[in-house]
Amino acid sequence: MFIEFEMERFQSLYENEVDYNLSDSGLHPLTIKDLLNEEEINHFLNMEIGYGYTQGDPVLLNHVAQWYPGQCENNVLITNGSAEANFILAWSLIQPGDEVIMMLPNYMQVPGLAKIFGASVKYIHLKEELGWHFDMDELQSLLTNKTKLISICNPSNPTGAVMSAEELKQLAALAREYDAYIHSDEVYRGSELNGNETYSCIEFYEKAIVTCGLSKSFAHPGLRMGWLVADESIIKDLWSRKDYSSICASVLSQYIAIKMMQPNTRKKIHARATSMLSTNVELFQNWLNTHPDLFSFVPPKAGGMAFVGYKMDINSTKFANLLRTEQSVLIVPGDCYGMDGYLRFGIGSPSDYLSTGLNLVSQGIKNIGY
Amino acid sequence: MFIEFEMERFQSLYENEVDYNLSDSGLHPLTIKDLLNEEEINHFLNMEIGYGYTQGDPVLLNHVAQWYPGQCENNVLITNGSAEANFILAWSLIQPGDEVIMMLPNYMQVPGLAKIFGASVKYIHLKEELGWHFDMDELQSLLTNKTKLISICNPSNPTGAVMSAEELKQLAALAREYDAYIHSDEVYRGSELNGNETYSCIEFYEKAIVTCGLSKSFAHPGLRMGWLVADESIIKDLWSRKDYSSICASVLSQYIAIKMMQPNTRKKIHARATSMLSTNVELFQNWLNTHPDLFSFVPPKAGGMAFVGYKMDINSTKFANLLRTEQSVLIVPGDCYGMDGYLRFGIGSPSDYLSTGLNLVSQGIKNIGY
């Protein structure tokens, strides 16, 4: 059974066709010149472009590990983007007949893969009335001795909600009781609006497998740099899968990633993200205010996106397609999350670009009579 | 069922630990400064590192397509290395219960994946006495109405044999009779010692799926640039799998790949490969001559490797491990292909490096009493 990855299909087909792409959930990227100094650029241009270490450059493994309390380089595997990290995790872990519990709404890659690999999938719903958190009692009611994996995205795509240390502790305790793995997609960690870094699940649970990368909070998707963080024995299993999926990651991207993951640079890049998003969340809120009573909105705590409910009598995909064809603006319809009546706006672009895009959305709203 | 990818495991674990890595089958790489001119470097350093097109940059699709007679950009999908191209092909095509026919010896990724995805695998053997070609009648005897896929590697890894147009026509006719796909791994195309480019299988068969990339004949594995070439309807299916496996390839690597795939540059890179290999095959043959009667050798027609049989009373993995631990030289044991009694030497490195490595192998041979 194959299930199309709706959101990626939608983005793949249209993101380069529109004038205003508000479908992306990351931050606007920089250039190599912005990221490397002259000496580093010189080294970079003179590197032989041979095979890299298949687990990842040892220096990069070390820098990544340092961002996770208590982890070392044997706990890290470098991948082609966080997408490949999610893929390898799903492919390694999920067997036909497994039960897996997925947070919903979510980036729909792992739920899709879980079904493709033959698992039965249960959903734990984020609730708007809980500020897009989920209910631990509800999670407990879904757990059984067959539960292989609980998959979360924290900070959450698409809601931008952030789980507290207390919630993560409770989650770990529940998973431990049923001996389930936790997959924690943490690709939005580091872009918190209040500047307080989200706790990594790896701090709380020995069977946590973290996926992350440089595409979202780190703002550089074109590098295709991602990683997995887990117990050494788990990393070993994942690594032997990667031999089959892509062998290793670009040595050029790894060189840039080493710079980006140095603690000082990392902090600067995240401070830039926080500053851009703070401005843009305010801009977005002001835009929503120009359409009174049309939207419900819980402002995100992190991540480059805003998830809103709407009170317009139109299907979300239909509305997104109208915006695409008539206004040349791309946003993600709630249908991609099985949540019609909602829309996801990327808000990580430069403010003037975002502002012009949103004005075009207003025109689209007017055109359908609201 | 999971089967470790023995050769990649062996290389992953040891290739960075030895002084002389003769386990690689590609050509020695260049640097960005060698590949791009000043204007291109300036553009490259000032590119925003955002998401690329998920199918691949249209300019790159076009350049790749031009290398295949009769193909256009809709026939191409860009991947993270040819490894990901092979992976996506296997994952998309192979269902539990399928019969697949694999050339042996071969790069063992697709055979491993075929088993992992539940196929029953039959082997068509390359025969040393046929100059490492296979027998078409033997292939015919393996085909049934259940045969989903025939997988070849042409030019062949590890033997460097090249199939003729006539052989490819016969192969296509057989596959057509049984309505089977042909997977043709053509990553060594372009490094022919006589300078005559190998025919692509896509010229002969409508259900051929070609995998290729810049890691071997193009000499730049660190870019992780690969592609699939097939009928447009097949590419569409493969593309929707790629949404799940890694979304897209590095925009930096794609920019360099565009330059490399321009016809003039492509020809220069391949001429360099031909020249390096011609020198090194002669060097290798001279080295073999210093061990009379110990080896059997059919010189390769293309590709950065030499595959030899040996008459020493030692298991190939044991011998490779002795060379690794005692001489700090890495070569690939025939065991990785299910062919004990053979060894694969990478011969694409600079001649002095190869020569020193081979002298260390002689020392290893002497140490075991030959």
From TrEMBL, chains A, B:
It holds the Pfam family Aminotran_1_2. CDD domains: AAT_like. One of its GO terms (molecular function) is pyridoxal phosphate binding. Residues 50-349 form the Aminotransferase class I/classII large domain. InterPro entries: Aminotransferase_I/II_large, PyrdxlP-dep_Trfase, PyrdxlP-dep_Trfase_major, PyrdxlP-dep_Trfase_small. This is Aminotransferase class I/classII large domain-containing protein. It comes from marine metagenome. The lineage of its organism: unclassified sequences, metagenomes, ecological metagenomes.
